[in-house]
Amino acid sequence: MSIAFISGTGLYEFSPMAQMKEKQIRTPLGVCLLYHLEHQGEDIYFLPRHGLTHSLPPHAINYRANIYTLHSLDVEKIYAFCAVGSMDLNIKPGSFVVLRQFIDMTWGREHTFAGQGLVSHVDLSEPYCPSLSRQIQKCGQELGMDIYDNGVYICAQGPRYETPAEIRAFASWGANLVGMTGVPEAQLAREAGLCYASLAVVSNYAAGIGDKIDEEAIFKTMKNQKSHLEKLISRLMNSKPPVDCRCNCKEAEIDACKKWPLVGDEGETD
Ligand SMILES: [Zn+2]
Questions:
Q1: Is the pLDDT of residue 268 over 70?
Q2: Angle ∠(150,4,181) on CA atoms, nearest 5
């Protein structure tokens, strides 16, 4: 069994990466860059979704190649991290929130593996794996992290920030966090039958809430929270999801994904 961590804005070069090997995996859907480490007999992958130098904007990330690659490397569990804006004054910058629901406001992204004669309608009543979500909460609490539950994430198209009017509308729909990269990643993981959970790191208040958006402050907040996430990653690598919390993520795998072959790495650089 293998596990993967997908990280986002301001969350690059985690300390475990120092021992990892860079790999470029070619798939029929494009190339995926990730890092590999063997740990206690398990394969661990680290995938920076924006690239290591933040070169890929949210709409240009090849989400399908990334999830295809993880599926084909036999990954079963994905822990994703993302930077978000908070639409709730009570959820302050620097907070951590486990996501439970999402609203999709993206457009023009390659967002599904279904199609071309293989039509499937995946069930997203519970979009994030409950088992991994509980594991993140438990490990975070053991480390003394203040982790909120029940994040309702709205995925905006980006790369621009939202207008205050958009934020007011999103909040009225029940969302409390806004980001740009959580969709279609979560949906594709479910289509591929992978357990996928996401922990949001609040980098700022959304537009019109709190202070003006300041990119420098966003990266500073993420930098400050990085050490917590490094400890959390280490804890997750050494723990198991709760046995009393089972999920149906694997059963959701659609037929299109069952036909994929396992891929080998096409390029590896030290
Ligand atoms: Zn699951």
A1: no
A2: 55
CA of 22 to the centre of ligand 1 (A): 27
pTM score: 0.92
Band (pLDDT 50/70/90 cuts) for residue 239 is confident
For residue 179, the domain's CATH number is 3.40.50.1580
Cα(126) to ligand 1 centroid in Å equals: 10
The DSSP element (H or E) to which 142 belongs, if any, is helix 130-142
Number of domains in the chain: 1
Task: Evaluate if residue 270 carries a pLDDT over 50.
Answer: no
**From ligand 1's centre to the CA of 108, what distance in Å?**
28
Which structural domain range is residue 178 located in?
Answer: 2-269
pLDDT of residue 265 exceeding 80: no
Q: Which residues surround ligand 1, an ion (CB under 5 A)?
A: 129, 131, 195, 247, 249
Structural contact between residues 110 and 216, judged by C-beta atoms closer than 8 angstroms: no
47 CA to centre of ligand 1 in angstroms: 19
Half-sphere exposure of 46 (CA within 13 A, CB side): 26
